[in-house]
Amino acid sequence: MPDIDHSVDIQVTAAKGMVTAAIPLAGHASEHWLRLFRMLASPLGPEPQRPEAEEREGRTWVVVKLPAASSNLHPESALDAVSALISQANGMEQQFQSDAAQTEAAIRDWWARQPR
């Protein structure tokens, strides 16, 4: 499961009144993980400011867009929330994988008990 990759530099750009931070992740992000992350991020705000997870340059990036200037802006809080989302998506993915493994084992046990 992906987690923040501190061995790769964060990408920060400013344009059109927004500052974009692309946070590099290490590890493979499955399609299921990407869907979980998007689902968790959806209530966090309108489209331009909602964190997104995407595949590019051979890795997964979490992209966060923040207004360049705001009296209420606390970038650290927003980035901490994104880090928590990554952890939450990892926990949900791990639970899904555990549940899937248990179901798969039950199916195989059933199959093994079938008359041949």
Name the descriptors:
116 residues, 26% strand, 5-stranded antiparallel sheet, 43% helix, Yope Regulator, Chain: A, alpha+beta
What does this structure look like?
The protein is α+β, with helices and mostly antiparallel strands. The protein has one domain (3-113): Yope Regulator, Chain: A (2-Layer Sandwich). 43% of the residues lie in helices and 26% in strands. The chain is built from two helices and five strands. It has helices at residues 31-41, 75-113, and strands spanning 3-4, 11-15, 18-26, 52-56, 59-67. Strands 1, 2, 3, 4 and 5 form a five-stranded antiparallel beta sheet that branches. A hairpin with a 2-residue loop joins β2 (11-15) and β3. α1 crosses α2. The protein is elongated and about 70 Å long.
Characterize this entry briefly.
The chain is of the alpha+beta class and 116 residues long. The chain contains two helices and five strands; from the N terminus they run βββαββα. The chain has one domain (3-113): Yope Regulator, Chain: A (2-Layer Sandwich).
